[in-house]
């Protein structure tokens, strides 16, 4: 991170993951509204662990970029073996990626072993990853007071929602809304990372009265005076509020479209099964020439159900 690509790349990963979870949870709930149970991750038709393998791959690439590819000397340490100040944030970002790698790796292991506490432990590992992310962004060594700090502050709100809903999911595995909000928050994280990357490192998008300055080997946004800084932070807040409305409209619309599509399929399947059962009951009744007592009453009730 600390560059346009360093924010857009992880943002795209969070965006894809959030949309995949949003789609999967809505589809699952539409098909099984009465027996819905949340899942921390979802298999695909190509590979059961594709989602988790991609998380491990993305985390490994992120660590490599932060510690070995990004630095000019291709290693993050000073000549005396200590961590220089301008590489502190590289270790912070790498720690987040390592935690997500641990989550994905143990999710695969837990699924293969299949212990009784598999679901709860997987959710706990996911919550730990979001907790690590929130902790390191809250105590980030980068600028806390400037425009970048405002972006990070608002990002922490979204991460907190991801953390809270993941923890709630441990005790509420049958709550669709908990999974829905968590998926939406992960999607929001992705969008906000992408917006942050372009807004902070594209000169034409820098707020009026502010500029890009090179400090400790990194470009940061600085402003001419308090008034310009206040205006820039206010613009960041407006961006966040507009994106909140836009993502809310998107996720609700996405839900309505998928429910209409998969809900109709389920309804058609149920009606087809009921129609076949009605035909079978008519055949049985005609073959037996009608029954008396309890069986006759049962056939009568079933015929009335089929007539509705």
From TrEMBL:
It comes from the Eukaryota. The chain crosses the membrane at residues 6-28, 49-70, 90-109, 121-139, 151-172, 184-201, 240-263. Keywords: Membrane, Transmembrane, Transmembrane helix. It is found in: Membrane. Coiled coil: none annotated. Its main location: membrane. Pfam families: DUF716. The keyword Transmembrane helix applies. It is a multi-pass membrane protein. GO terms for cellular component: membrane. Signal peptide: none annotated. PANTHER family: PROTEINASE INHIBITOR I4, SERPIN (DUF716) (PTHR46285:SF3), PROTEINASE INHIBITOR I4, SERPIN (DUF716)-RELATED (PTHR46285). Belongs to the TMEM45 family. This is PROTEINASE INHIBITOR I4 SERPIN (DUF716)-RELATED.
């Amino acid at each position: 991170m600390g560059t346009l690509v360093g924010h857009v790349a992880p943002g795209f990963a969070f965006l894809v993951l959030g949309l995949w979870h949003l789609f999967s949870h809505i589809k699952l709930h539409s098909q099984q509204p009465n027996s819905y149970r949340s899942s921390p991750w979802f298999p695909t038709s190509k590979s059961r662990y594709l989602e988790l393998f991609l998380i491990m791959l993305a985390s490994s690439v992120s660590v490599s970029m932060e510690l070995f590819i990004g630095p000019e000397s291709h290693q993050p340490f000073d000549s005396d073996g200590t961590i220089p100040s301008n590489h502190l944030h590289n270790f912070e970002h790498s720690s987040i990626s390592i935690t997500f790698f641990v989550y994905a790796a143990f999710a695969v292991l837990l699924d293969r072993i299949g212990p009784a506490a598999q679901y709860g432990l997987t959710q706990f590992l996911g919550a730990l990853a979001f907790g690590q992310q929130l902790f390191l962004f809250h105590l980030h060594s980068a600028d806390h007071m400037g425009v970048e700090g405002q972006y990070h502050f608002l990002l922490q709100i979204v991460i907190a929602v991801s953390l809270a809903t993941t923890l709630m999911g441990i005790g509420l595995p049958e709550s669709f809304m908990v999974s829905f909000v968590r998926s939406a928050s992960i999607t929001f994280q992705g969008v906000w990372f992408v917006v942050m990357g372009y807004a902070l490192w594209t000169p034409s998008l820098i707020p009026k009265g502010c500029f890009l300055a090179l400090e400790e080997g990194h470009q940061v946004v600085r402003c001419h005076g308090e008034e310009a800084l206040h205006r820039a932070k206010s613009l960041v807040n407006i961006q966040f509020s507009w994106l909140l409305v836009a993502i809310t409209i998107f996720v609700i619309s996405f839900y309505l479209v998928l429910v209409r599509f998969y809900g109709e399929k389920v309804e058609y399947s149920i009606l087809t099964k009921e129609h076949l059962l009605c035909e079978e009951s008519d055949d049985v009744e005609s073959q037996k020439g009608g029954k008396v007592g309890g069986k006759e009453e049962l056939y009568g009730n079933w015929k009335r159900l089929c007539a509705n």
